[in-house]
Design brief:
Length: about 180
């Protein structure tokens, strides 16, 4: 079984209750949205990232989708602060040194606001004097906060990050907070 989940902002990619360790109630978890037993996430999305999360009950498939050696292409829609020109994005296409590793070359282009876009709660912080731009970034890696670190490195901090696709799986026809079950 494969589950395609359109993860909302502020949801933790785990089923157990999130305890931030400060005595306060934690974020919502996958258990709040997916009542199916014995499924596990194939990869993760940060709490502040949105979009496609694949879950499965098949350990081999989980490994194939989440392990970097299989080079599964991940497509992200990224709203950045500023208005990058094509030359500003070239370092991302060549690979950028993030200090602890150099990224593989990414496929990057400026896009219009995605048609599938939903309202985020709470909305992003926008500054009136600084424009924002949407990018489509495709990478085969997926290291911790990689896309955010990449855009920051070239001077355009990420304001909103949505994973649209992993390989041929997408969030098409899946409302935010909803999931679709695919049988193999």
């Amino acid at each position: 079984m494969i589950i395609l989940f359109n993860k909302p902002f502020n949801v933790v990619c785990q089923f157990s209750p999130h305890d931030p360790g400060n005595g306060k109630t934690g974020h919502a978890t996958l258990k709040d949205f997916i009542p199916l037993p014995d499924v596990y996430a194939a990869g993760r999305l940060d709490t502040d990232s949105e979009g496609l999360l694949i879950l499965t009950d098949d350990g081999a498939l989980q490994h194939r989708l989440s392990h970097p050696k299989h080079k599964e292409i991940k497509t992200y829609w990224v709203q950045v602060e500023g208005a990058p020109e094509d030359a500003d994005l070239q370092p991302l296409r060549e690979g950028v040194d993030l200090g602890d590793f150099v990224t593989q070359p990414a496929d990057v282009k400026v896009i219009n606001v995605p048609e599938l876009l939903w309202e985020r709660h709470p909305p992003i912080r926008e500054r009136k004097a600084i424009p924002t731009t949407w990018l489509e970034i495709k990478i085969s890696e997926g290291k911790n906060r990689q896309v955010r670190r990449m855009t920051a490195k070239v001077g355009f901090p990420t304001l909103r990050l949505i994973r649209y696709a992993i390989g041929h799986y997408t969030i098409d026809d899946i409302e935010v907070g909803q999931y679709k079950v695919i049988t193999k």
